[in-house]
Please model this.
Amino acid sequence: MTVEPILEVKDLRIQFKTPQGIAEVVNGVNLSIAPGRVHGLVGESGSGKSVTARAVLGILPRNALHKREGSVRFAGEEILGLSEDEMRKRIRGRRIAMVFQDPMTALNPVMRVGKQIVLPMRRHLGINGKEAKARAIDLLGQVGIPDPEEKFKVYPHQLSGGQRQRIMIALALSCDPELLIADEPTTALDVTVQAQILDLFDKLRRERNLAVLLVSHDLSLIAERCDEVSVMYAGRVVETGSAISTFEAPQHPYTKALEEARPSLENPPHTVLRTIPGRPPQLTDLPHGCSFANRCPRMTELCLDVDPPLEPGPAGRPVACHHPVAGPDEPLGVSVTAAKERIS
Amino acid sequence: MTYAKVIAMRAVHLVVVLLGVSFLVYLLLDLLPGDTAEVLVASSSNPTPGAVEEIRKELGLDQPFMVRYVQWLGNAITGDLGVSFRTGQPVTEAIGERLPVTIQLLIMAEIISLAIAVPLAVAAARRRDQAFDRVVSVFTFTLQSIPNFVVSLVLIVIFAVTLNWLPAIGFVPLQEDVLGNIRSLLIPSIALASALVPLYMRVLRNEMIRTLQEDYILVARSVGLTQRSVLFRYALKPSLPTLVTVVGINIGTLIGGTLLIELISGLPGIGTLIYSGINNRDYVLVQGLILFIACAYVLANFIVDMIYPLLDPRVRV
Model:
């Protein structure tokens, strides 16, 4: 059974002007999300996951260059080239909404929370203040805020972090969007509150058949909460597929290394965590070939010359690697130094 | 701390400041060279021997400084600032007659400055570092470097003398003719505003730029609010506190500015009253006026302080 994806990103490229030169922050990203599914976008800081998320809504920072290549199709319509005005009127908040990382700073400190939820509804749904208020109070109840009528009138600083994130979610859901982008929605919260917020996403997704793009650097969270996952590295998706198989049988050496760098409760105490040597490449000066090559124990000369395309790998899921890991038991390789010596 | 408690604390602070101000005002004029009694005798038509001593006694100038100060302060608190040497008019009455003109002038100047500076600052912040922002910056910088009495003269030459749209000098009371009253104060209030617009505009522009980088602005954009909503409903209010502070601090400068402007435009306000008081060495009048202005300044800032909690609920707790 194939469901028409609600969001389809193809070969998206975004560049930023920085003091060091042009940074290629997003470098040919492909993504596809079906209604009612949760798609995880995972990668380390600076891998371009947040920028990809923001590009879908067209709310990039000031220093992003206007030239944007590729395609972002939403419900069958190309939205990458839409004007600011069209995006504001028809897409943002109306059909695609976003939840941000830090609920402490994401709400306007000098505006009552109720009004912040009411404003987009009045704009998008054309309803009057009274209807909007009733809807907002109903929403606050749905996202698990106790005393919604009282809380409608308070200012953000009177609420806890978890409650503010719930407010933020109510704000995002106020106009019944079809796609929810959550950019590190629980990173700033306590672990117990994290679970509650993620459960809330899950409930809303089921009730509303909402598609969710969950951006996070937290592998465990992504593995636990997502149907599909895309792993990003240096502005590219290097591996994608169902969350279970991606983490059980990673094909890309980066995914595999990430898996191995993940602490597990089954490890005996004081087990040394594996890390990935080196650091991600400078986005202002990307290498010709594979951007992971200089940290990869499987690196060969081919990797330095040719950037591998995202194609089905040994496990059938797309992977961008010349030498993918064949199965869960195959070792990653000895070390990067050994690989480098092999070449020279 | 509750809001009431904050106000009470500020009020105590206010009383202490006013006491200090009154003492300094009294001391300052006491230390000025020139003996009031001698001046009065010298200017009378037929000075008699011993007249100086007589006048001294009459005015209480033979008493020690602290005694005179306490007496003067006690009277001032009851609203009696003494009687002008020259005109024989009670100082409080003279201030009462002149005050409405100056207050109206100040209010008009503030309204004009804010009405120009706020939209300009918002527009410049939105187009930060682009052509519009740069042009506004150069324009306001130029404006700020011209003293406001020069602006006033230029405006009189253009709009009164050449175009004959507005009166060059004189004042029409509000009760007589509302439109005429506003017309008579237009040039002086624009001249006063010319110094304030650049200041307000720059302060607010910088605050707006800071606010526009906040996460909640990104959120406002992400829910599809119009640019206007984002700027005016979301970003303006959190950017205002600094502007409010600057407005408060500048009330003093503004009152000083009215002195020259009132003279140029021939307005019967506090400024011209001080001017004639100083010219006539009418110390009682000048003393009363300075005390009054200092109180007005301190009070205005007290009111400004009370505005913060209205702008930011976090201060209210």
Observations:
- The interface with chain A takes residues 214-216, 218-227, 229, 233-234, 237-238, 311-314, 317 of chain B (CB under 8 Å).
- The radius of gyration of chain B is 24 Å.
- The first helix of chain B runs from residue 3 to 31.
